[in-house]
Amino acid sequence: QVVLVSGHLDSWDVGQGAMDDGGGVFISWEALSLIKDLGLRPKRTLRLVLWTGEEQGGVGAKQYYQLHKENISNFDIVMESDEGTFQPSGLGFAGSAEARDIVREIMTLLQPINATDVYDTADGTDIAFWMRDGVPG
């Protein structure tokens, strides 16, 4: 079973996208680094994907989806960090009511940093294919 954690590398070359785009890469990378540093052994495979081509129409995400969609039943959740590296307030979530309850319970662990909100919607160019096909995101 796979938990996909991700962010994207690209941004508009004349824009101010470094925090939006590159920030999600570092957030996702650091999340997995912390799990390793803490000596935790997850029950599922944690897969880090650093997307490219998001700003150009999601071509990297589409390619990844095409290569892995035959194993969609192995994906438990797909996550994308794509709104900067500012003070977190919680997660946007799309999935079943049962899955939402699990996410809410997990988010209580983030009370010390006041990031416990679970918002009713989730989107992300890079994980949209998966969520469209029913994988929680």
UniProtKB/TrEMBL annotation:
<keyword id="KW-0479">Metal-binding</keyword>
<keyword id="KW-0964">Secreted</keyword>
<keyword id="KW-0865">Zymogen</keyword>
<keyword id="KW-0325">Glycoprotein</keyword>
<feature type="domain" description="Peptidase M28">
    <location>
        <begin position="1"/>
        <end position="137"/>
    </location>
</feature>
<keyword id="KW-0482">Metalloprotease</keyword>
<dbReference type="GO" id="GO:0005615">
    <property type="term" value="C:extracellular space"/>
</dbReference>
<dbReference type="GO" id="GO:0005783">
    <property type="term" value="C:endoplasmic reticulum"/>
</dbReference>
<comment type="subunit">
    <text>Homodimer. The monomeric form is inactive while the homodimer is active.</text>
</comment>
<dbReference type="GO" id="GO:0006590">
    <property type="term" value="P:thyroid hormone generation"/>
</dbReference>
<dbReference type="GO" id="GO:0005764">
    <property type="term" value="C:lysosome"/>
</dbReference>
<keyword id="KW-0333">Golgi apparatus</keyword>
<keyword id="KW-0458">Lysosome</keyword>
<keyword id="KW-0732">Signal</keyword>
<dbReference type="GO" id="GO:0046872">
    <property type="term" value="F:metal ion binding"/>
</dbReference>
<keyword id="KW-0862">Zinc</keyword>
<dbReference type="GO" id="GO:0006508">
    <property type="term" value="P:proteolysis"/>
</dbReference>
<dbReference type="InterPro" id="IPR039866">
    <property type="entry name" value="CPQ"/>
</dbReference>
<keyword id="KW-0256">Endoplasmic reticulum</keyword>
<keyword id="KW-0121">Carboxypeptidase</keyword>
<dbReference type="GO" id="GO:0005794">
    <property type="term" value="C:Golgi apparatus"/>
</dbReference>
<keyword id="KW-0645">Protease</keyword>
<dbReference type="InterPro" id="IPR007484">
    <property type="entry name" value="Peptidase_M28"/>
</dbReference>
<keyword id="KW-0378">Hydrolase</keyword>
<dbReference type="GO" id="GO:0004180">
    <property type="term" value="F:carboxypeptidase activity"/>
</dbReference>
<dbReference type="GO" id="GO:0043171">
    <property type="term" value="P:peptide catabolic process"/>
</dbReference>
<protein>
    <recommendedName>
        <fullName>Carboxypeptidase Q</fullName>
    </recommendedName>
</protein>
<comment type="similarity">
    <text>Belongs to the peptidase M28 family.</text>
</comment>
<dbReference type="GO" id="GO:0070573">
    <property type="term" value="F:metallodipeptidase activity"/>
</dbReference>
<dbReference type="Pfam" id="PF04389">
    <property type="entry name" value="Peptidase_M28"/>
</dbReference>
